[in-house]
Every structure is written in structure tokens, then in C-alpha cells.
Amino acid sequence: MPSENINGSTQSNESKRPATDAQINANRQNAQHSSGPSEAGKAKSSLNAVKTGLTGRSVLLPTDDVEIYQQHVARIFSDLAPATDRERAVVQTIADTEFRLLRIVPLEAAILAIGRREQQHMVLDEPEENREALLLGYISSFYKKDFSNIALQERRLRNQRKEDLLELKTLQQERLAKEKAEREHLKNEMKRADRIVDTARTYKIQYDFAEFGFVFTKAEYDAYRTKNTNYYQLTGTSLDPDQFLQSIRTAQKVS
Length: 255
Hints:
It contains nine helices and two strands; from the N terminus they run ββααααααααα.
């Protein structure tokens, strides 16, 4: 008859009987056989982790070499040369997508390796010349879903990279067009300043340079005009006013 324990639950008299030596030995043997995951289980676990690396939030897996990732990102940044925060954000996404894509081939190779180990017994009785083709057929059939998922993720990653590269191209074209327009505007402003200064000198007119709304000061204008006159006499070409102003402003910050 079942008895009630201190927790209020019932326990049969059979469960209270001490285990025999045979039962103890059997339990020990079962524990030895089931202690920890098998090698195949470990391989599958590692494979699942790499699969997560294609879609997970974190780009890096615990087994990834951080230094290699950083070198990869640095190379992408060097190749694509972002110049604004938005461009840098897009390039970072491109670099991460590229890093995920680099996992595709090793991942497929890992599935083939696991498949060979787990499906090899299926072709042991076949003629030796047919074993390789048959083994690949079994692997393709058994891991069909895995290969399909990898192909799907690869297409998604490549499409994402294509969209990001297009966005980056658009951002850079817009930035370059804006910079070109700003340089042309600055050249025209320098010419307008030339006319004002020359006219004031010719007619001895008193004026306040700051009143004309230039993006450069009178001192910067005078420095450019002096430098440009000498440069033109030596080379026959004019200095780029934007580059000149950036250089002297940078020098002033350093000093």
C-alpha cells in the first residue's frame, strides 16, 4: 500500500526497497555510456553555433578570432572609404555581412564531414567505385533541409550586401556632389571678395569685410590671395581655396 511522505506525496513500498547489486552495476554502466554529449553531438552543436552566426544578432561566435574580424573590418573600411557617420554605419553593416558570408563554405564543408561520418555505414556493402557517389547522395538527401537553409541565408546576405552597397554609393555620390557645389561656391565667393576689395581700394571706400557674409575672414582671404598670386606665377594654375582654408585652419588648431 502506498505511504505518504512529508511533502504529502505518495510513494509505493517498492520504491523504498534498496537497490540490488545488479541494479547498481547496471545504473553505473548506463551512466558511463551517457556521460556528456557524444562526438557527433558535439559536432552538431558546433555546427548549430555556426548556423546561428549567419543570422544571429552577434556577428562574432565564441570561437571566432577577434583580431581576424578586426582586420577584415579595417580592410573593408579602407576599400570603401566612408567619410560620414551614416556612411561608416553602412560600411560596418557591409563588413559584417561579408564576414557572415565567409562562413558559408566552411559550414557546407562541416555538414559534408559530419554526413560522411554518420552515413558511411550506408554504403559499406556497395561496390567501392560506387560508394562516393552514393554517399554524397545520402548526405544530400539526409541534410537537404540544412543545405537549403544555408542557400536561403546566403541569398539573403548577398541581397543585403547588394542593397547596402547601393545605399553607400548613393550616399557617397550625394556627398561628393555637395562637396563639389560647396567648392564652386567658395571659388565664386573668393572672386566676389576680389571685386569688393579691388573696388574699395580703387575708390578708397571704407568697408567692413565681415558685413558681406563670407565664410572666411579677411585675414584668411588676404593669406589666400598672397599665396595664390605667388603660386599662379610659378605654376600657371590657381590654388584650391577649400584645400587652402582647411590647411591653415588645421594648422591654427594644432598651434
